[in-house]
């Protein structure tokens, strides 16, 4: 932090020194601007690298009732959010979360689940909603040939989040069904 402070002051000194030499700003303004650079530069570096992310997992098996085909429903269940930094839990009994960070940045979202359908030959599709809209490149589908048999669905994508953006894992089927989730985990972390 001290090195960043001196780097900010030195950059401020050289940039604004020419303005002092040409009488565009006073010497006092020059000193104040340089100090502001010295404080602002490490502060901006700190804010841009602040830790952000979350891990969420289903604590016990749950069922999501799909009433209408090809409509995405939030995955219901008793979820644990830990660890969680710069995110808050939204919704009751779902995988919804809100980004509270002040820095707009890219995040990698990964999820995995073990699912079963209550009917034979059911296509289950999982994906991610960003601010209430389905992210098309997040959709992952699997055909559950035998009712009650567990199948695996997992996916990942990169999404850019701004302050107060929301994320939610959702599920859909090609017919009305009860979808049982034995396991469901998701992780959100800074991509770069």
What does this 3D model show about the protein?
The protein has helices spanning 2-21, 27-48; strands at residues 53-58, 62-66, 73-74, 79-85, 87-89, 97-99, 105-117, 122-130, 133-134, 140-144, 151-161, 166-173, 177-190. By secondary structure, it is α+β, with helices and mostly antiparallel strands. Helix 1 (2-21) packs antiparallel against helix 2 (27-48). The mean pLDDT is 86.
Helical stretch count? 2
Mean pLDDT: 86
**Assembly form of the protein:** single chain
The SSE string, one letter per element, is HHEEEEEEEEEEEEE
Helical residue percent band? 10-25%
Number of strands: 13
Query: Major beta sheet, specifics?
Result: 7 strands, antiparallel
Distance between the termini: 21 Å
Low-confidence stretches: none
Tell me the strand percentage band: over 45%
Cα-atom radius of gyration? 24 Å
Give the structural class. alpha+beta
In one word, what is the shape?
rod-shaped
Describe the secondary structure blueprint for this structure.
Elements: H1 2-21, H2 27-48, E1 53-58, E2 62-66, E3 73-74, E4 79-85, E5 87-89, E6 97-99, E7 105-117, E8 122-130, E9 133-134, E10 140-144, E11 151-161, E12 166-173, E13 177-190
Antiparallel strand pairs: 1-4, 1-13, 2-13, 3-12, 5-6, 6-12, 7-11, 7-13, 8-9, 8-10, 8-12
Helix pairs in contact: 1-2
Tag the structure with descriptive keywords.
about 190 residues, six-stranded antiparallel β-sheet, 13 strands, about 20% helix
């Amino acid at each position: 932090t001290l090195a960043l402070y001196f780097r900010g002051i030195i950059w401020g000194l050289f940039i604004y020194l020419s303005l002092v030499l040409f009488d565009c700003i006073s010497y006092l303004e020059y000193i104040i601007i340089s100090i502001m650079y010295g404080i602002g530069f490490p502060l901006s570096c700190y804010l841009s690298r602040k830790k952000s992310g979350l891990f969420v997992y289903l604590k016990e098996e749950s069922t999501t009732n799909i009433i209408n085909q090809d409509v995405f429903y939030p995955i219901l269940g008793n979820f644990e959010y830990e660890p969680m930094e710069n995110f808050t839990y939204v919704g009751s009994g779902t995988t919804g979360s809100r980004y509270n960070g002040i820095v707009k940045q890219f995040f990698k979202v990964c999820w995995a689940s073990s699912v079963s359908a209550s009917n034979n030959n059911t296509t289950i599709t999982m994906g991610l909603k960003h601010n209430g809209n389905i992210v098309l490149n997040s959709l992952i589908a699997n055909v559950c040939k035998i009712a009650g048999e567990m199948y695996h669905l997992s996916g990942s994508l990169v999404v850019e989040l701004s302050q107060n953006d929301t994320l939610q894992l959702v599920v859909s089927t090609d017919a009305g069904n009860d979808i049982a989730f034995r396991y469901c985990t998701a992780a959100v972390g800074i991509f770069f």
